[in-house]
Amino acid sequence: MTALLPALVALISPAFQTSVPIVEVHLAKGHFSPGKVHIPEKGRLKLINDDKVPYTVEGAGALPGDVIVPPHQERTVDLLPHPGRFHAIIEENPDAELVLEMAGDPEAASRNRPLPFDAARRLGRQPVLFEPGQDPAYATYTTFDLVGHGEEAQQAVLRDLYLIQESLAHEEPPEDFRLFFTPADWRKFRQSASMIYALGPGAYASRFGPRISTARPADLAPLPYSTSLGLKNPGQRDILVRVSSDRQWFNQQVVRWIWRKLQGRISKPTMETGYANPNGRSPILGGFFDGTGNPYAQEREAAVFGDPAGNGTYLALFRIVFDEERFRAHSLQEQQRLIGRDREIGKPLKEAKPAAHMNRAGADPHTAILRQPFVFDDGPEDTGLLFASLQATPRALDRLLHGFMLGSPRPAQKRPQDLLLNYMHFKSATLYYLPASPKGSYPGSIRFGGK
């Protein structure tokens, strides 16, 4: 009987009952083999590199990011849940093409998932990362300045922010929201709800005492792009908070709860709200795939938290007004020329210019950042992106902006500007440090060095 126990356990385990189909594709001599596959429901893709060189596989709408496959190794990829026909390429050989006919995952939206706060807290982090295919529908940002003096004034604000952050993962909704949720509704909804907070340079000012001022991260400073981006007011503040979930009203009311909690201790609070790109397609770009070139898996960890991984990171936030109507007035052919992709299937165009958006935004393999865009729409001439990026060092963002999107600072390199910059108007550009969330304390605690 004892000998049968392992077999019985395996028989009744969820993994045994719900085996996931895996479809294998080889990368050989710079091409895919086979060149077309069908992915059944909930299926995964295994990429096997038979060559001596690494390959980067991109598949807008299908892959959760750029998948790097080292020489003579394999990577198994969790695909995005949307059904349809998609195309993947090898970035080192764009002529190589893989057609993915995907049945999708119809149960993805209803499946229970880990609470963002709990999953991040176990790693000593704030819940800043969204798992592929599980991006919240909405995000609301608030920024404000601190008005107090002394170490305790700064630390008390951070402690109160942490208590609010933690409460969004409790079994019961916070008291301010108890009347809006049934127990069952709250248990499901909180799987999408999370909050982060980050500190600007002013949060480490000398008025908060020597321990705090010396804890300021080395690379934390206002972004030096005011002239290049045409900014009149960069918008840098002491504290940034982001609340995200699948309900816009909830995010905004949590922000107002924060304001009430911190009344008298903060000044000039702001609020900005945006919605996520549906299925990875940008509404303000007429349905083109955008922001699909994010790092994936361990490359994402290294890009955001550093290698070896730490638990804090830098968050840059831009408010970019986009001239949507002027862009959409162009013919489809002209739109595709500006973006560098086929709108329908997301495939990069072979004839795309070096200045096309997809080529400029991801032209340098050394500028790995994690993009988290949300669309805002505040009127006929005020729509665009709340564009957040996460990076282990601001230098990665600097290389991307100056060397590739804004054109090279060295004329001899002759790198062109991103064609979409003609439709983009930067209204603010700010940088914050997102501290770790140490066990037994709160993000930014001076007990753990303020980081």
Written description of the protein model:
With 451 residues, this protein is of the alpha+beta class. The protein has two domains: 86 residues, Immunoglobulin-like, CATH 2.60.40; 333 residues, no CATH class. It is 23% helix and 25% strand. It contains 13 helices and 18 strands. The strands form four sheets. A five-stranded mixed sheet has the order 3-9-8-5-6, with no helix packed on it. Strand 8 and strand 9 form a beta hairpin. The longest helix is centred in the middle third of the chain and has 17 residues. The protein is globular. The N and C termini lie far apart (54 Å). The N terminus is likely disordered.
Features of this protein?
5-stranded antiparallel beta sheet; disordered N terminus; Immunoglobulin-like; 451 residues; alpha+beta
